[in-house]
Specification:
Shape: globular
Number of helices: 2
CATH superfamily of one domain: Glycosyl hydrolase domain, family 43
Strand content: over 45%
Number of strands: 25
Distance between the termini: 39 Å
CATH architecture of one domain: 5 Propeller
């Protein structure tokens, strides 16, 4: 059982981990979700307060009879015209020698540290370039969600770089090498009012300043992608192109996983796409939970024998594992 990050919070689940290999161990940066014990007449909401360059976990206590409070889904509360999350997340580190049995740190690896992270930090993605691990994650606040960047060389010390994609933008997947002298990323701005949230391309000279933005894939309108799509873990380089595992949100808020293949030298160009998802919720633990019918992956590793370990969150509650290979994914692209 995971230990809560602070007194007064409860751990609800660990899910949506970023993944990489460091010192022959598999590292997961898990999103750990917490809430507060509830009372008969009150709603208790976790959040962080920042003062004098210090962060402090707090609890907002609201009377249930207050006419200005409105419960949304299991994840949200609207109070006095402002959105709050019923839960708050931090990122915690887990280590494993076999990819299955993990030792989990007791304290957060990345916790909210500034106003852009007031409502939590979520869904880390890890990209290794040379000897540096680039960790992008979602910072959530009353201003919406933004993509933050941090770096580490040893998974002990981290250096925060700040916001790299301003609100509303997340689902950032950074390629693990430069292409044509530029860092490359996929990202997903939220386009309220026109169209649906889609996968975009961007490049950067320094990992901080991003430009040449281009929408490369929109939801196909099927029952699997009727609401939005977004990229997952760092793309996988193959002889055929860059393999991208991405998610779609469809009818009844179901999340599934699908595949893209991007051009090796021009990753804004799509070579191939699966016509239907390769991975959908089927097991009970993927269909029933805190937020049901959700499969969401932002972390994978490739073992020396070529096996791909896909770590994914189920129902915003648990971490699960699926295995495959590059050849199997390329086969699915050609046959599914």
């Amino acid at each position: 059982m995971l230990i809560p990050s602070v007194k007064g919070y409860n751990v609800l689940g660990a899910f949506n981990p970023g993944a990489t290999i460091y010192n022959n161990q598999i590292i997961l940066l898990m999103r750990v979700s917490e809430n507060c014990p509830q009372e008969k007449s009150f709603i208790n909401i976790p959040y962080y307060n920042f003062k004098n360059n210090k962060s402090e976990a707090k609890i907002l206590r609201i009377n249930k009879d207050d006419p200005q409070v409105m419960l949304k889904d299991t994840r949200g509360v609207l109070y006095k015209g402002k959105d709050y999350l019923s839960t708050i997340s931090h990122i915690r580190l887990a280590r494993s020698s076999d990819g299955i049995n993990f030792t989990i740190d007791e304290k957060p690896f990345i916790a909210p540290a500034n106003e852009s992270e007031k409502f939590g930090v979520e869904d880390a993605r890890i990209s290794k370039i040379d000897d540096t691990y680039y960790i992008n994650y979602t910072g959530v606040s009353e201003d919406g969600y933004a993509t933050m960047l941090a770096t580490t060389k040893n998974f002990i010390n981290i250096e925060r770089k700040g916001i790299i994609f301003a609100p509303l933008n997340k689902d950032v997947a950074i390629f693990e090498e430069k292409i044509n002298g530029k860092y490359i990323a996929l990202h997903r701005p939220d386009n309220h009012g026109f169209g649906l949230p889609s996968i975009w391309y961007a490049d950067s000279p320094d990992m901080l300043h991003w430009g040449n933005h281009k929408c490369i894939l929109r939801p196909d309108g099927s029952k699997w992608e009727s609401q939005k799509i977004g990229a997952g873990a760092a793309p996988i380089k193959t002889e055929k192109g860059w393999l991208v595992l991405y998610h779609g949100k469809g009818d009844n808020s179901m999340y599934s996983l699908n595949l893209l293949l991007l051009d090796l030298n021009n990753p804004s160009k799509i070579i191939m796409q699966c016509k239907q998802p390769i991975f959908t919720p089927k097991e009970d633990y993927e269909k029933k939970g805190f937020f049901g019918n959700v499969i969401f992956s932002n972390g994978l590793v490739i073992k020396p024998d070529g096996t791909i370990l896909i770590y994914y969150g189920a129902c915003d509650e648990t971490i699960c594992l699926a295995t495959t290979s590059i050849n199997e994914l390329l086969y699915l692209l050609n046959n599914k």
